[in-house]
C-alpha cells in the first residue's frame, strides 16, 4: 500500500496447488513400498480397507456406484450453481487423515488439497527443518488434548445473583493423539503423515465432534469466497444449507451464521460502502430473515435454518443467550491484577484523540537470564509461563498494532492476535481488541501462504491480516498483492533508509501513524530489538516491558543487547538505562517495566 492510500478493494486470489514430479529426494533410501510414485490417497484408502484396519470405512466408490463420495471431476472445478468445489472422496479422506491408522505418503499437491479440510482437528506444536531446508517435520496434537474447563477450585466466585454457566466437559475427556507431518521439498516433493510414538492409537472422540469444536479452513475459504461477492451473511448461510451433503462432506455440518458473519466482517470493514444483497432468488423479510423469493419457485418458502420468528417483547427470554463455544486456544481473562502495567501503556483512546506523528511504542519481549530471546535464530523458544503469556495477550489487546521482523515470522509462524476470552473471535464481536500485525520484510522474504497462521487467523475472524513493510525494490507481483489484499492485509512501502541501507524506524512509525495506528507493541526479534535499543532510536520508544525467565539459554541464543556506549573520556558506559522501573513477579517469570523516551517527539504532545 502506498502508505497514504486506503484503497483495499482487491478481489481475493486463490493459490493453485503446487506441482511435484514424483521423483525420490536425493540421498533418501528407498523404502519397502515403492515410493517412486507416491501412494495416492484413494489408493491408501483401498489398502487400509484391504488390510482390515480401516474400521468401518467404506471402500471407495467406483464411478459406477458413485452415490455421493467420489466426484467424477478433477479438484478445483465445481458444478454450476454449487458454492462448493469439493475434491474427490473428501469425506473418506478426511476420516483417513483423522484416524492416521497407518503412515500415509501423499504428494504435496494432495496435501495442499485435503489438509485445509482437516486442519481443524490439529494444533501445531513445533516444527523442525533439516539443515538444507529440504525436509521439514511438523508435529501436531489433537486440538482436544486440552480440557474444556478449569477445575472448579480455581474458578473465581460468581457475582451475587449470577447462575453458574453449564459447562460441557469434553466427550471422552482429553485426547492424546499426535501426528508428525514430514515434507520433502525440492525436485521430489512428498508428504508423509504418521502417528508419533507417544500418541494414543485412537482419538477419544469422533471426527464430527472435532468439527463441532472448530470449523476447518477449507469450509471457511468457501465462505470467504462468497462473502467477497457482497452477499448478506444470512443469505450465504442459507445457500450453504441448500447443499447439506456437500457441507457435511467438507466437515461444515456445524457451520453457524455467526461463523459466516465473522468471515464476512473482515471484508465488510474494508468495503463499508457496499450494499450487501441476498443471492438471486432470495430476499430479506423483517422478522423472518432470508427467505426464498415467492418468484423463485412459486412458493414463499422460509429457509429452514434461518433466525426464529421474533417473539413479542414481553415474551423475550430474560436470560442472555448461552455463549457460543469458544475456540479451544482461548485464554481465560486474567484473574490477577495487571494494574502495574498501566503507567507504561498507551492511554485508552477517546473520541477526541488527536492524530500524532508517531504512535506510542512499547517494546515487549521475553528473555532468559543471559538476555537471549531464543535458543538460536529461527527457533521459537517458550520463555513465558502461563501467567506471562496471558499478560502478553492483554498487552496485545491494548495496542493497535504488533510489529515483528521477518526473521520472527519465518521462525515462529506466529498468530500475533489476542486470544483472551472476550476478544473478537474468542467470544467478542468483530475484531474487538484485535491488533494489526505488522511485519518488516524489506526484501520480500516471507512467501505469504494461505496456511500461514496470520492469514488463517484473519480468515477465521480471530485476528487481523498483516501489513507487510517492504522497501521499493521488494518483489511484489500482482498475485502476492492480490492475495494479501484478499485476506485484508496490505504492503506498505517505505523509501527512507539510514546509512547502512536499513529502513529508518521514524519512517516506519510515521507511516503506521498515518494509517491510523496510535500504538504499536514491538515483540522482536533480536535484530529489530537491537536496532531500536540504540541511541539513534530510543527517543521513539515509550516503554519497555520485559518478561524475564529463570533460565540461561547459552551462547548460541539470539541475544538482545544494544551497541556499547562510551563516556566523553572514552570509558565504557551503560548503553541504556530505562526510567521509572518496576519489577513484578508473575508466576515463574518476573516482569520488568520501564520508560525509555526522554522527550516526547510526538506532534502536539506535552513537552
Ligand atoms: N522471546 C521473545 O519474546 C521473542 C523471540 N523472538 C525470536 O527471535 C528470533 C528471530 O530474530 P531475528 O532472526 O533477529 O529476526 P527479526 O524478527 O528481528 O527480523 C530480522 C529481519 O527483519 C528485517 N528488518 C528488521 N529491521 C529492519 C530495518 N530497520 N530495515 C530493514 N529491514 C529490517 C531484516 O530483514 P532482511 O534480512 O530481509 O533485510 C532483518 O534481517 C526467532 O528465533 C524468534 O523466535 C522473536 C520475537 C520475540
Ligand atoms: N512474550 C513472549 N514470550 C515468549 O516466550 C515468546 N516465545 C514470545 N514470542 C513472541 O510471540 C510470538 C508468538 O505469538 P503467537 O502465540 O503465535 O500469537 C512470536 O512470534 C514472538 O513474537 N513472546
TrEMBL record:
Entry's Gene Ontology molecular function annotations: 5-amino-6-(5-phosphoribosylamino)uracil reductase activity
Gene Ontology biological process: riboflavin biosynthetic process
EC number(s) on file: 1.1.1.302
Family matches, as Gene3D superfamilies: Dihydrofolate Reductase, subunit A
Annotated catalysed reactions: 2,5-diamino-6-(1-D-ribitylamino)pyrimidin-4(3H)-one 5'-phosphate + NAD(+) = 2,5-diamino-6-(1-D-ribosylamino)pyrimidin-4(3H)-one 5'-phosphate + NADH + H(+); 2,5-diamino-6-(1-D-ribitylamino)pyrimidin-4(3H)-one 5'-phosphate + NADP(+) = 2,5-diamino-6-(1-D-ribosylamino)pyrimidin-4(3H)-one 5'-phosphate + NADPH + H(+)
Keyword line: Riboflavin biosynthesis
Residue span of region Disordered: 1-86, 146-171, 302-321
Domain Bacterial bifunctional deaminase-reductase C-terminal: 359-591
InterPro entries xrefs: DHFR-like_dom_sf, RibDG_C, Riboflavin_Biosynth_HTPR
One Pfam family named in its UniProt record: RibD_C
Biased composition (Low complexity): 302-318
Compositional bias of kind Basic residues: 1-11
Enzyme class, spelled out: oxidoreductase
UniProt family annotation: Belongs to the HTP reductase family.
Function description: Catalyzes an early step in riboflavin biosynthesis, the NADPH-dependent reduction of the ribose side chain of 2,5-diamino-6-ribosylamino-4(3H)-pyrimidinone 5'-phosphate, yielding 2,5-diamino-6-ribitylamino-4(3H)-pyrimidinone 5'-phosphate.
Name of the protein this chain belongs to: 2,5-diamino-6-ribosylamino-4(3H)-pyrimidinone 5'-phosphate reductase
Taxonomic source organism: Penicillium frequentans
